[in-house]
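Would you be willing to look carefully at the protein I have copied below?

:::
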Amino acid sequence: MNRNLAQIVTWSSDRKYKKVENFLLRPAVEEKAMQVAATVLADVKERGDKAVIEYARLYDHSNISVRRIRVSPEEIKDAKKGVDPEFKKAAKEAHKRIVAFSENGLRDDWKMATPKGGMLGERFVAFDRVGAYIPGGAAPLASTALMTLTLAKVAGVKELVACSPGDADGKLNPYIIYALDLAGATEIYKIGGIQAIGAMAYGTKSIAKVRKIVGPGGPYVTAAKRQVYGDVALDMVAGPSEIAVLCDSSANPAHVAADLLSQAEHGTGSEKALLVTTSQKQAEAIRVEVLTQAATLSRAEPVVQVLEKGMLLVVVKNMAEGMKLCNLFAPEHMELMVSNPEKWIDKVENAGALFIGEWTPESVGDFAAGPSHVLPTGGTAAYFSGLTVEDFRRRISLIQFTQEDLKDVLPVVEAFGRVETLDGHARSASIRFE
């Protein structure tokens, strides 16, 4: 058994452990990716479609052209015919659950009375045009189509744009096309990577600029998203997948191992999987299962990369210490596989999504449960939240004062105007009573 794969270490909060610290300190965005993204984005901004096509051919090895960049109605029709019935049924069920969860997450416009007869409130307005990035290179993530644009559709967005890399023939995976159409996409483009982010952020002759870009991606897509912030709104930093499992001896080692491996197979090589347990014996049993199951997976090569540098099995002295370590890690996905999981829910402070109990594997969050699987990574779950329906709407504050309201707050306005040396501000209120 290779000792360098899925290593077991011990940890406690009162000491420093180099292996654990190195594991925790992963960059939200890789510096090399930032440099490449800057070059490509500048070129796309300057040369538009021509640069987009060149980079699609260079990085995606896709035989694409400007004329064929957009998925045609015929291609959508063919995808609907070609996708197998079992997947159609599954996609429709997932879509139904995502819609239901999103509809429950919508906030209503509201109003309240001011002290002197006026009104305050909030109104929520959907973006008119948003873009979703759908990974399709190493793994065609049809589920991401549902987990992004379905929310936008429920929120009331009218123009729903999607970009996903084409294959060597310049075609898009039919399962992605089917899922995007089901989600409500109004435009689908066969481009991926940095060039797709640039096209949506800046606009080209073929692809009109969007207001906001959402969706996960590898290190280069994540770097590109970070650099176009300000030209467009963004959801969050959503890069290579992560999972943390906190378990005690009640957890089935085979189940824990399967859950750890579920996030190791995406293929970027930057995925992270952390096991935290109170039992050395449990850690050893899980490691055996991890190595055994890894050998049976169809994507074994990228999984081995993660086992070498992205998976760590940690033994702690008690559950409180384990929870502390998980919160330090701030994982995209966190599983509580303990005998009384409800007891520990409120102790989880930093996680994109929490999966509670032995019957809630992370995969239900990826495919079926209802909440979006677009979640913060790289430790950013400590300050970002996952994608929700409200990310596709803007909030507008409503303020309507009566004469009596303005008179009531005039001393407040004048006091702040004086202290901040903004006499013009104060005058705009006081002049109404002269």
Remarks:
- The chain has three domains: 7-28+239-369, 31-234, 401-433.
- The first helix runs from residue 18 to 24.
- The chain is about 45% helix and 15% strand.
- Residues 401-433 form one domain.
